[in-house]
């Protein structure tokens, strides 16, 4: 259950789960997370800055950042943090909120990809790579990128034309009914 | 002793989506090696997707619930479940942990925690299995210089994977030494290749992958060895683009550790696995008399 908690510093509600907030509050800004982050050079807000914003209950800059979606979820930050703070674990609930509330984002192709990925699971019970790639490329108007590579993969039997439809697909659909992707 | 051996030599098998498509050679080689050393793998009947790298980005319920049904089936099947795909392993083990600690899921998914969720590396590195592999080598991979590439999900998130050493893992090193390969030391064992942005920010993936490939070449590796389908696909498929961009030829085979075990143990159809790669390994392996 997500609990909104109030920050006396900013007067804002952080909307972070309480157990996560308790961990995030241990941050003493050593910036080891940002030092090891493979995407730091591309980010508009660095990992240690995002943690600070979360401590202050000010998640809006994170919501509108590129960093929210450029995070690779490689968890290098979490493995190295002296206080056990895993930045992707902090970002996941914020990403969920952005998707749920259909907030427009920078790097919109990244959440779009994940939603298409999950749609193929909802339809077939498993990922179907051809549907996934086709729909993603259609949506992002990049239909002709990687055509040569796609043909090579197809010839090597790595891409199937028809999806495998699991006999458990109705149970998978039931799981989706309890999610934001009904 | 006999009972322990019997119990550990049979596993429930969760291949996951990649192993039916882009990582077919991982599925074939994992099963081929298991059969050769007498490890029985029983596949979860008509399993469904674990949600991979996408569910946790989009929805908390999907993240935990998508792998739950297959995990419950695995528990009924009675043996520890092995997921060779590093991504599936993390998702399944995460769900196993959540179901045990979060009572809201217990009504629908009453998982008892009587089975373990093992990665491919954990299974191959476990004592009876690694001993069997070492004892059954008929063609040691002498002269093959390799860098072990674990990637992210073989060691992280650390609270889920619980690796012995997240910065310098050695499980794959020991397996490769057991089959006679020359394991080179290098600094990027667990650095990210960018796999999760493969289609969405290909420019960044090329930057991160090039860094790994440059270092592999710098230390003189004949091949990079991994057990992660996302890393393998990413590093294998992007070398042509990196060559085009830089004007230098990138041609480092990216192999699954199970493919190399298969050669060392003389698994009959090992040759067919290597034809699946985009960057061909066949020339460098046959030059060394290994294929």
Give a quick set of tags describing it:
heterodimer, A: 182 residues, mainly alpha, Fumarate Reductase Iron-sulfur Protein, Chain B, domain 2, 2 domains, 11 helices, 51% helix, B: 291 residues, alpha/beta, Glutathione S-transferase Yfyf (Class Pi), Chain A, domain 2, Rossmann fold, four-stranded parallel β-sheet, 8 strands, 9% strand, globular
Give the SSE map.
The complex is a heterodimer of chains A (182) and B (291).
Chain A: H1 18-24, H2 32-36, H3 47-55, H4 60-63, H5 67-70, H6 76-80, H7 87-100, H8 109-124, H9 129-139, H10 147-155, H11 169-177
Chain B: H1 2-8, E1 10-13, H2 24-37, E2 40-43, H3 52-58, H4 60-65, H5 68-77, E3 81-83, H6 86-101, H7 103-106, E4 117-119, H8 120-125, H9 127-135, E5 145-148, H10 158-161, H11 171-178, E6 182-183, H12 202-218, E7 223-226, H13 229-237, H14 239-246, E8 254-256, H15 257-265, H16 270-274, H17 282-287
Parallel strand pairs in B: 1-2, 1-3, 3-4, 5-6, 5-7, 7-8
Helix pairs in contact in B: 2-15
Short summary of the structure?
Chain A is mainly α. Helix content of chain A is 51%, strand content 0%.
Please, could you describe this protein's structure?
The complex is a heterodimer of chains A (182) and B (291). Chain A is an all-alpha fold and 182 residues long. Chain A has two domains: 18-100, Alpha-helical ferredoxin (Fumarate Reductase Iron-sulfur Protein, Chain B, domain 2, Orthogonal Bundle), CATH 1.10.1060.10; 109-177, no CATH class. In chain A, 51% of the residues lie in helices and 0% in strands. Chain A is built from eleven helices and no strands. Chain A has helices spanning 18-24, 32-36, 47-55, 60-63, 67-70, 76-80, 87-100, 109-124, 129-139, 147-155, 169-177. In chain A, helix 8 (109-124) runs antiparallel to helix 9. The longest helix of chain A has 16 residues, at 109-124. With 291 residues, chain B is of the alpha/beta class. Chain B has two domains: 2-122, Glutathione S-transferase Yfyf (Class Pi), Chain A, domain 2 (Up-down Bundle), CATH 1.20.1050; 137-287, Rossmann fold (3-Layer(aba) Sandwich). Helices cover 50% and strands 9% of the residues of chain B. Chain B contains 17 helices and eight strands. A four-stranded parallel β-sheet of chain B has the order 2-1-3-4, sandwiched between helices. In chain B, strand 1, helix 2 and strand 2 (40-43) form a beta-alpha-beta unit. Chain B is globular, with a radius of gyration of 19 Å. Classes of the chains: A mainly alpha (182), B alpha/beta (291). The interface between A and B is large, with 59 and 52 residues.
